[in-house]
Design goal:
This protein is α/β, with parallel strands linked by helices. Helices cover 39% and strands 18% of the residues. The strands form three sheets. The chain has a seven-stranded parallel β-sheet. A four-stranded antiparallel β-sheet has the order 3-2-1-14. The chain has a three-stranded antiparallel β-sheet with strand order 4-13-12, covered by helices on one side. Strand 8, helix 8 and strand 9 form a beta-alpha-beta unit. Helix 1 crosses helix 2, helix 1 packs across helix 3 and helix 11 packs across helix 12. The two termini are 32 Å apart. 51% of the residues are buried. It binds magnesium ion. Magnesium ion (MG) binds next to loops. The site of magnesium ion has 7 residues, from loops.
């Protein structure tokens, strides 16, 4: 193993992965397919590392932007660089292009995967070691047809999953209350969270949030737009149910402001928002220091990005509220990994193999590619 080796290969695939149903969220629906970018780095000796960018156009950015960020702006920082320069590459990436946090997450994941594959260590070991072997899984309910979500709930329960998150604030308040009451009545053993995804207007937020709070979900997430820090802070003071921030907090810079302005009791930590695993861990550490809770959220991802998030959470003691890596098994028609993302008895299994501990099936990358840099 030599971290003196140079990175010589930089390949990209823009994939459209078909999904099983439409899903509605406060900021917009997902329908038809999830679009992701897969990055493959190759070292001089032929060892390969993979990373995924999972953008959502209404939340973090577009797949086109992620592809261009990697292909045009981040590629020159990587080609010819040595593996030992990971921190320097990521520091330059931070300012080589504004935003595009999903592209930076893909880059750091691929660098860590490559380093782990070369050294024979899992990514969690490169991050300092693991604090857990299993992560409780939460699955989100966002089907406009609630009867279909009930069918999914039966499946989740049979699989041992004990946490769900109800996506609210898309239709009228009665629809949200009906679903929450039904969950409470028919699935009393399942823990319920509510996420508005910024769906409420400032004038209606208080009434709806306080009404939902009477049904005591574990927490209520991001009822209003990301920039409404003042309204988040006001709502937080009016309810005993914890208020979580998601869209309001992308990176450590937002976390510092959120803590100072006391807008939330907890935070959703996502590598696609923060721009990588190390910045995601920093957010969780800042939350822990400020006495706030944290859980491991995700975007519309394949199992490849789930693996990156799993390693990050495995090495981050402050993330105590589980994770949301459900898409690979419960939302995509077909995942892209060589071996399936592992969930046992409602918990994500932390992998012990080198790097990510898995890799994409190259035939599936070619099958679902809209475009790629691979030679035809
Ligand atoms: Mg959320």
């Amino acid at each position: 193993m030599s971290l003196d080796q140079k990175i010589t290969g930089f390949d990209l695939w823009h994939l459209a992965l078909p999904v099983v149903s439409r899903r509605d969220h406060g900021i917009g629906p997902v329908e038809g397919a999830c679009e992701i970018i897969v990055l493959r780095l190759t070292a001089e000796d032929g060892t390969q590392g993979y990373g995924e960018a999972s953008p959502w156009s209404v939340f973090t950015g577009s797949p086109e932007a992620s592809y261009a960020a990697l292909d045009r702006y981040l590629r020159p920082l990587v080609e010819g660089a040595r593996l030992s320069e990971r921190a320097a590459i990521m520091a330059r990436a931070q300012y080589a292009i504004a935003h595009c946090t999903e592209a930076k997450a893909a880059l750091e994941t691929a660098l860590l995967d490559l380093e782990g594959k070369m050294s024979g260590q899992p990514i969690w070991a490169l991050l300092g070691g693991k604090v857990r072997d299993r992560i409780p899984l939460s699955c989100s309910l966002a089907n406009p047809d609630f009867a279909e979500d009930i069918v999914l709930l039966d499946r989740l329960q049979a699989d041992g999953i004990g946490i769900v998150k109800l996506k609210a604030g898309v239709r009228d308040h009665a629809f949200d209350m009906m679903r929450l009451e039904r969950l409470r009545r028919d699935f009393p053993d399942i823990s319920v969270r509510v996420d508005y995804n910024q769906g409420l207007s400032p004038d209606e937020a208080e009434v709806r949030v306080l009404d939902v709070a009477t049904l005591t979900p574990d927490f209520i997430e991001q009822p209003v737009r990301a920039h409404h820090f003042d309204i988040m802070a006001q709502l937080r003071h009016k309810t005993d149910v914890p208020l979580l921030a998601d869209e309001s907090i992308f990176g450590p810079e937002d976390m510092a402001r959120a803590t100072a302005e006391r807008i939330c009791d907890g935070v959703s930590v996502k590598i696609m928002k923060s721009g990588g695993l190390i910045r995601a861990r920093k957010i969780a550490q800042m939350a822990g220091t400020a006495g706030l809770s944290a859980y491991g959220g995700d975007m519309f991802e394949s199992g490849l990005a789930h693996f990156a998030g799993t390693h990050m959470i495995a090495a981050t003691p402050e993330i105590t509220l589980g994770c949301e890596f459900y898409q690979a098994r419960y939302y995509l028609k077909e995942d892209i990994l060589e071996t399936p993302f592992q969930i046992e008895a409602g918990q994500v299994v932390v992998p012990d193999g080198p790097g990510l501990g898995n890799r994409p099936d190259i035939d599936k990358l070619r099958k679902y590619a809209i475009r790629s840099t691979e030679a035809p």
